[in-house]
Amino acid sequence: MSSRSRKIDPLVLRSESEQIEITGNYVLAVDDGNAYLEAGLAGLGVIALPIYMAAAHQAVGALIPLFTQWRISPMPLHLAFPPNRHVNGKLRVFIDWIVELMQQHVPITNNK
């Protein structure tokens, strides 16, 4: 779901040699990752999750990977904060923590 338009964006999947776009007839649409995960765990349909959200559930058989030859294009994650000259200690700790957490799952690039 697009946060700007509140419309459901098509799902773009890529393989090594191909790209497809899927636009479905959705019965349920949420804009919260945890609600999305819970819907999938409840058997409400096929879901596309980041590995870090799905891994523990896959390990116990609650989620089963489908279309493993396809990947969803990476999406940006931005940290937004006021442009002060000085980043206070609490904010610096949070920034360092979230970067470390995300690096465990995906490559991080710095696009300043």
UniProtKB/TrEMBL annotation:
<feature type="domain" description="LysR substrate-binding">
    <location>
        <begin position="19"/>
        <end position="102"/>
    </location>
</feature>
<dbReference type="InterPro" id="IPR005119">
    <property type="entry name" value="LysR_subst-bd"/>
</dbReference>
<comment type="similarity">
    <text>Belongs to the LysR transcriptional regulatory family.</text>
</comment>
<dbReference type="GO" id="GO:0006351">
    <property type="term" value="P:DNA-templated transcription"/>
</dbReference>
<dbReference type="Pfam" id="PF03466">
    <property type="entry name" value="LysR_substrate"/>
</dbReference>
<dbReference type="GO" id="GO:0043565">
    <property type="term" value="F:sequence-specific DNA binding"/>
</dbReference>
<protein>
    <submittedName>
        <fullName>LysR family transcriptional regulator</fullName>
    </submittedName>
</protein>
<dbReference type="InterPro" id="IPR058163">
    <property type="entry name" value="LysR-type_TF_proteobact-type"/>
</dbReference>
<dbReference type="GO" id="GO:0003700">
    <property type="term" value="F:DNA-binding transcription factor activity"/>
</dbReference>
